[in-house]
Each structure stands twice: as C-alpha cells, then as structure tokens.
C-alpha cells in the first residue's frame, strides 16, 4: 500500500488546484443564471426587434428565383439598402430604441457592403411576399382589424392565439419552410414558454395570450419540430461538422435562433409532464449545433439536461434522452472564435460531479437510477480518451488522497470520509469506465488501472471488521469486473479467503428470525445481524459468488491450474471445520467445479510442445481455450 500511495499521490499541493477546478466547473452555470436574470427582459425585446429588422430578408429568395444570373454582390448591396431603409424608419418611429441599439447592439446597424452572401439558398413558396412588410414584434391592432379574420383581445391587451391562426402558420412553415411564418411561430412560442413564470414577466413584452390547452400543445410541438428544419435550411448546416456561426446568413438570422433557444430554456424549466419533457429534450437535441453557438445558453441548457438526467422523479425515457442530448452537445462543433474546441470537457466534469452528488443516498428505490446514471456516464468517457484521461486522473487521485488522509489520522471522522456511498460509487464508476474503455491494450486510459486497484484494495484494508463486510463485497465485485474485462491480474483472492478465518464463520451462529440482509443496499451490517445465522449464511453466499466470478475470468488461462490452487485449498480447509448446511454444500460444489476446470487445462497443456517464453504460442493457446470454455 505504501507504493500505491507514493505512485498515485505525489504532491498534496495539487489539492488546491483540483478544488479550484471543481468550484469553477460548478459555479459556471450559476454565474450564467445571474446574468440571464439581469438581461432577460432587455434581450427578449431586442430579439424580437431583430425579427422586425430581418423580416425583409426573405425577399432574397424571391430575387434568386426571378434572376438566377444576377451578380451576388449586387444582391447583397440591395439587401443592405433595404435594411438601412428599415433602420431609418425605426429611427423616426422610436428614436430612443434606435439609440439603445446603437449602444448595445451596434452590429445590427452596421453592414459591410463588401461581404459576400451565399446565394444558393432555395426557399419554396411564393406566399412570402405578402408577409415581408409585417411587424412581428408590434402587430398593431388597428392594422389587424382590416384582416379577414378579426383577432380577439383579452383584458391584458394581448391577442388571443386561435387554432385557425396557428394552423395557418404551421401549414405555411411545413409546406414552404417560410422564415416569416416561422418567426410568427417563434413570437407565439415565447408566450407559451413563459406561461409558467408569470411572476418573472416584469419587463418582458408578449404579443399573444394562449388560453386553450390544445392550442398550447399544438404550438409547442409544431415550433420545436419545425425550428431545426427551418434553421438548417437557412444556414445550410444539415450536413458536415461546420458551426452555423460560419454561415454567411448567420449575422442576419442569429437573433431568430437566439430567441428560440432562450424561450426553449424557459419551457424546459417549467415543464412537468413526462411525455412533453421527452419531446422537448428530443427536439432540443436537434439544435445542438445552435446551442454551441451561444455559450451562455449552452451552459444553461447543459444544466437543465444534467438535472433531468440525475432526477430520480424523471422517467427512464427522459433520463436516457437527456443523456443523448448531453452527448450531442458535447460533440457539437463550436464557432472558431471561441476558446474551446467542444463542450466535451465541460460535460465530462459536470456529469461526474452530478453523479457523485446524487448517489449519496442509496437504497432499493434509488439504486436502479444510480446504476442507469453510471452506465450512461461511462459511455461519455469513451468519446475522447485523451481528454477522459485528464479528468479520470484528477478524480482518482482525489480518492487516493482521501484514503491516505484516513489512514494517517485513524479517527472515526476520517474513516467516514471513505466508508460512505459516494466514495464506493466513485470506485465503482471508474472501474466501469476503465473496464469499458481499456479492453484494448493501446487504450490511453489503461495506465489508470493500477492506481485505481490500489485505492480499492486500500479501502478494503482500512477497517477490516465484519461490520463492513458488505462494503468489502461491493469493492471486490467492482475490481473483479475490471480485471476480467481488461485481462489484468488483480490479486483479490486473499481478501476473499481471509473471511474463512473470521469469527463470523468459525464460531457457531446464534439463531435468528431476521430477513436476509439486502447486501446491494448496505455498506455496514446492522448490529442486530452480527453473529446471527442469517448473516453467516449471507457471508457464505456472497463469498461463493465472488470466488466463482473471480476465477471464472481465468478458466481459459494457461496458468489457471496454478492460480486456483490457493482457492481450492482454502475452501476445503473451511469445509472440514464446518457443519453441513445449504451454503456449505454450495461451497463444496464450487471447489469441485474449480478442480474439474483445472484438470481440463492440465490435460490440454500436456499436449503442447512450447515453453512459457513463447508468447505467441501461449496467447494462441489461451484464445483456443477461451472459445471452448466461455
């Protein structure tokens, strides 16, 4: 154990650095929330104002259809002049808001005429001409009174969104992928997304009021399903690994994307229905490339997904879909202007820390959810092994430091820092990460097997009392899985066989009427179970399972006969001292089975004519035995 402590834990000075990393990671989302609460009202108004300015961009598509041979530079100049004309109108109508744009969003007012715009965009539908002059943010009620279908108005002055209006917009979006119709949906979607937080509506302007549940559901589902399709058509990023921010049209339409994502965050935060949450997360995943273009929204989105993924009240479908969305965001391309290459590093840190926080309370109800979280998170660590190695090294080292401190201080308080569910689940988590991703000997994570095994064995030896036998079996199972999957020999047998000499098994047990102990949900044996018949039978049953699974991974190995001798001897020695019982009989059968496997390998070995130094022949023999016995 001394060697492991030196190998794994080299310098205590790194503790501060690791704590800073963890604090930084977990505080990023909270900082963004604070920023969002301060600017939410202003940005919402600004997003819709940008929609006004962008309304006339759809004329581009009509120009492209009427004159395919027209020079692209002239088209861009024509667009810029049209934008400037709209800005002049805005300056006259609302000079104060125009000044605000000059101060806060000057990029909307400045256009570079030398910039070339991609003109291969094909947008079907000739009905967009009638929509170009509409003001989606303001929608003056006097103008709307002249339309064929007169809008209803409630006491708040907001137009009531009717089913006929919504159906018309949806049909237009689905048939022609009209950007203007999509903008109408997005403005209405804002009202739907913010229905659950009316107390936070101060400073937020809405256009519509939704009073029908069926209209609400139709609006939300239609907007979420059509938004990614329209965005991909506008920015032409349906294929490839390029960020939408690199598209020429991004500067004109990014406000539309931003409006949708910000309101989608509000919607996902307020939803409680499991089916609707599943649809929202599934459709949000399709916008992963767009989330990655806005750092603040990406972090808020990741925080929501992590909460759904780790929430015990979430259905399995929602939790699995949330993980798929996390993985999609982690691998999405980011704009070149950002410092980071992907969000994978942030996702790896936070998914592990979220797992640790949520595995503190382990019982029969939470254990399946914890296992699901672990299995999903393990998959994320297989995407980029080089990046995963950095994360795994830091957190395995933290486990080693915690264990070393407990060994040095030797107090009850220090022992509890190791003997708890979080620490044991962390060992099991990293054992599964390495077992899944280190089956290839060239794996970059493979060097971490040794330090993790030493931490695990040190955990067993910290307090070797019978009261902590359940904890011992948890660690033994994790290490057995790691050793068998990676084909690395981990000496676990001594930690099993020493239990045959413990007072729990050598002394006569007291009669007991207690129910069998739930070993999967206990780390410490309740006091009333100790020295009872139920506990003794449980220990023998757990030993039988651990010994069998341990040696099962070596049934095919050329050295199996030598490896299994200590196990057979230990079992037979215990059987001689024990009274007949069901568990004793099972151990007797196990010893016989191990002996039969040993004799089979010896028989096959007697037929070979190569020495142990000939590795190629040895590996060939092992592979042949594996195919026959497993």
TrEMBL record:
Principal cellular location given in the protein's record: nucleus
Biased composition regions of type Acidic residues, renumbered to the chain: 1-20, 54-70
Domain of life where this protein originates: Eukaryota
Chain residue ranges for the region called Disordered: 1-79, 110-156
SUPFAM superfamilies from the UniProt entry: ARM repeat
Keyword entries, A-Z: Nucleus
Alphabetized Pfam families for the sequence: Noc2
Compartment(s) where it occurs, according to its Swiss-Prot or TrEMBL record: Nucleus
GO cellular component: Noc1p-Noc2p complex; Noc2p-Noc3p complex; nucleolus; nucleoplasm
GO BP term, pick one: ribosomal large subunit biogenesis
The family this protein is said to belong to: Belongs to the NOC2 family.
PANTHER family referenced in this protein's UniProt entry, alphabetically: NUCLEOLAR COMPLEX 2 AND RAD4-RELATED, NUCLEOLAR COMPLEX PROTEIN 2 HOMOLOG
Record protein name field: Noc2p family-domain-containing protein
